[in-house]
Design brief:
about 200 residues; alpha+beta; Muramoyl-pentapeptide Carboxypeptidase, domain 2; 5-stranded mixed sheet; two-stranded antiparallel sheet; 3 helices; globular; metal-binding
Length: about 200
């Protein structure tokens, strides 16, 4: 299996999967199996980022990582906005297990001020915004520096989203037919309809 579970205590992170709860844009949980997974290549990059953050006195809180294709469709049906969501017909980096949504925690375990919450689908969530407080600008820059130094690419519209540079080289994963505890299966992308 190419996906590995990310969970404490093996991983020095906090996990708060937004899509495993009703606290997301759909208003309901959309994960059949609410566990945090990443492709092993992304997990290696996360391990590098954890070490870099630790050296500066920070930890990560993960809001999302692997997102099965069924969940991507649920989000897309709720808000088909390509500025903030990948079209599931093309495949999201999350559905490939090579993207992570996260924030930084201070030494006391408090989230750093980032100017918006997670999944704030407005332009104010874009990187390099100067109309958020200076503290939030600084914290976004610290997160960006840690993640890019650990070989993650960023998505300009979401301060919380990072993905591997070659994300399209990974298969899309689905979990709809699998009971808990089973391996996740890769599947080919659905063809994109020609209009």
């Amino acid at each position: 299996m190419d996906l590995v579970e990310i969970k404490p205590p093996q991983w020095d992170v906090e996990i708060e999967l937004a899509y495993a709860t009703p606290n997301n844009i759909t208003g309901k949980p959309i994960y059949a199996y609410p566990r945090c997974y990443l492709h092993r290549d992304a997990a290696d990059a996360l391990a590098r980022a954890i070490e870099l953050a630790r050296a500066l006195g920070y930890r990560f809180k993960i809001f999302d990582a692997f997102r099965p294709s069924e969940a991507q469709w649920a989000l897309w049906k709720k808000d088909p906005n390509p500025e903030f969501l990948a079209d599931p017909r093309r495949g999201s980096p999350h559905s490939r297990g090579v993207a992570v949504d996260l924030t930084l925690l201070d030494a006391a375990g408090r989230e750093l001020e980032m100017g918006t919450g997670f999944d704030e689908f407005r332009p104010i969530a874009h990187h390099a915004r100067t109309d958020v407080p200076v503290e939030a600008q600084r914290n976004r820059a610290i997160l960006l520096g840690i993640m890019t130094a650990a070989h993650w690419d960023f998505y300009r519209n979401e301060w919380w989203h990072y993905q591997l540079f070659n994300s399209r080289n990974y298969p899309v994963y689905s979990d709809s037919a699998l009971p808990p505890g089973r391996e996740l299966m890769a599947r080919p992308l659905d063809p994109i309809p020609v209009e």
